[in-house]
Amino acid sequence: MNDQVMSMLLQQIAWNSPAILVLVVGLLIALVTLSRHPLPSILTMIGCGLMLLSRLSFILFNYTLMQGERGIDAESMRLFFSIGNTALGAIGLALLVAAIFVGRSIPASTISERNF
């Protein structure tokens, strides 16, 4: 592996490390609260896991492209990977949003205020 490729790989890891750290912490918090809030925790774990997979696969994909494999259509691969990676991240984010609201009930006072 040449030094330039290794430098770019480490740079991508550094750029993505804040998001990776937040996602790992989210996974750990969801794991800790699993017994108290099972459904939100499961949704959070799946969502954070998908977003983490999206980040790590992006780094690995770029590393593979930097290696300069011959015989592959890099532009087509980049297009399909980008679409899939974006979809994976969007699904993960949707699950995190769902985890925020799942299992919540409307307080009785709110219901009676709406029926004035």
- Total helical segments: 4
Distance between the termini: 71 Å
What is the beta-strand fraction?
Answer: under 5%
Biggest beta sheet summary? none
Helix content: over 70%
Describe this structure in words.
It is a single chain. This protein has 116 residues and is an all-alpha fold. The protein has four helices and no strands. The protein has a domain at 23-102. The longest helix has 30 residues, at 3-32. The protein starts with a helix and ends with a helix. The mean pLDDT is 86.
Pick out its properties.
116 residues; mainly alpha
How are the SSEs ordered, and which strands pair?
Layout (H helix, E strand, L loop, with lengths): L2 H30 L5 H29 L7 H28 L6 H7 L2
Quick recap:
By secondary structure, this protein is mostly helical. The chain has helices spanning 3-32, 38-66, 74-101, 108-114.
